[in-house]
Amino acid sequence: MGDGLVQARGLRKSFGGFEAVRGVDVDVAPGEIFGFLGPNGAGKSSTMRMIACVSPRSGGELSVLGMDPDVDGPRIRARIGVVPQLDNLDTELTVRENLEIYGRYFGLSRAHVRRKAVELLELAQLGDRGDAAVESLSGGMKRRLTIARSLVNDPELLLLDEPTTGLDPQARHLLWDRLYRLKGEGVTQIVTTHYMDEAEQLCDRLVVMDAGVIVAEGSPGELIARYSTREVLELRFPPGTAAPVETVEQLADRVEVLPDRLLLYTSHGDHLQAELARRGLTPLSALVRRSSLEDVFLRLTGRSLVD
C-alpha cells in the first residue's frame, strides 16, 4: 500500500448489525501528527483500537509499522504507545512505580526502567512527585503521567484518544507543549479529538469523520480554505425576534441558521457588519472571527462538532 507508518484501505468495524467504521482509507506519514476529528460516535475510537491491535478489523486492509495487526499484533504493540481516553493508572502504586512496573511489561531491565522513569518524570513535569500517591495528583498531572507511561518503551508511534477531555485550558496547553516536544523528537502521533482548536493546534493533517466515514481530509488550513470563507460574522438577536435570514442571505457568501445565532460567511466581516448597520439591522450582539474547523464540519454535515 506504500510507505506510510499506518495505512488503511476500506477499513471496517462492525458490532453485531451496527457498522461503526464503514470503509475508511488512511495514510499516516512518519514523524507527523495525524488527527481524527469528529463528534462522539463518529468511529474515531473504533478506528484507533484497530490501529492499536486491541480490536480486530471486520474488513478491509490495515498495515501498522509495515505489519498486519491480525498476524503481528504482539510485535506491533511492543513498538507503539497508547494513551486511552480514560486514565487507567494503578492507584495502589506511586507515580514512579507506575512507570517502572509498566516498563517491565516490555521486558526492559530494572536499571533501564529506573533511568527511563527519571527522564519521563521530567518530561511530564512531575520530577518532584515521583514518590507521591497517584490519587494525590490533579487531573492534568494524571493525564501527563499517562502520556509519560506510554513512552516508557520509546515507541515509534503514539496513539492518543481524546487526550485532553475534561482538562482545564491551562492543563490542555501544557499537554500540547509536551506533544509538540515529542514531535520534535520524531515520534509519530495519531490523535482523536472533538475539540476543533486542539486539531488546529496539533495536527499536520487530519480527517473529519462522521457516522463511520471520512467526509474530508487535509491540513487544517487546507480544509478551512476549501470548505469555508476567511471570516465569519456571528449575529445574535433578542429572544422571540425573527432573524432576518432573507436579508442577510443576499449579502453573505453563505448563511448557517443555528438555534441561538446566525453565522454569516464572508471574506470581510467588518465590511459586512457595517453594511448590516447601514440597513438598520440591530442584532443583540455581533462578532467577527476567523473561520475554524467547526465551520468546516458544519458545512459538511449540517451540525456542529459537539452536537
UniProtKB/TrEMBL annotation:
<dbReference type="Pfam" id="PF00005">
    <property type="entry name" value="ABC_tran"/>
</dbReference>
<comment type="similarity">
    <text>Belongs to the ABC transporter superfamily.</text>
</comment>
<feature type="domain" description="ABC transporter">
    <location>
        <begin position="6"/>
        <end position="236"/>
    </location>
</feature>
<protein>
    <submittedName>
        <fullName>ABC transporter ATP-binding protein</fullName>
    </submittedName>
</protein>
<keyword id="KW-0547">Nucleotide-binding</keyword>
<dbReference type="InterPro" id="IPR027417">
    <property type="entry name" value="P-loop_NTPase"/>
</dbReference>
<keyword id="KW-0813">Transport</keyword>
<keyword id="KW-0046">Antibiotic resistance</keyword>
<dbReference type="InterPro" id="IPR017871">
    <property type="entry name" value="ABC_transporter-like_CS"/>
</dbReference>
<dbReference type="InterPro" id="IPR003593">
    <property type="entry name" value="AAA+_ATPase"/>
</dbReference>
<dbReference type="GO" id="GO:0005524">
    <property type="term" value="F:ATP binding"/>
</dbReference>
<dbReference type="InterPro" id="IPR003439">
    <property type="entry name" value="ABC_transporter-like_ATP-bd"/>
</dbReference>
<dbReference type="InterPro" id="IPR050763">
    <property type="entry name" value="ABC_transporter_ATP-binding"/>
</dbReference>
<keyword id="KW-0067">ATP-binding</keyword>
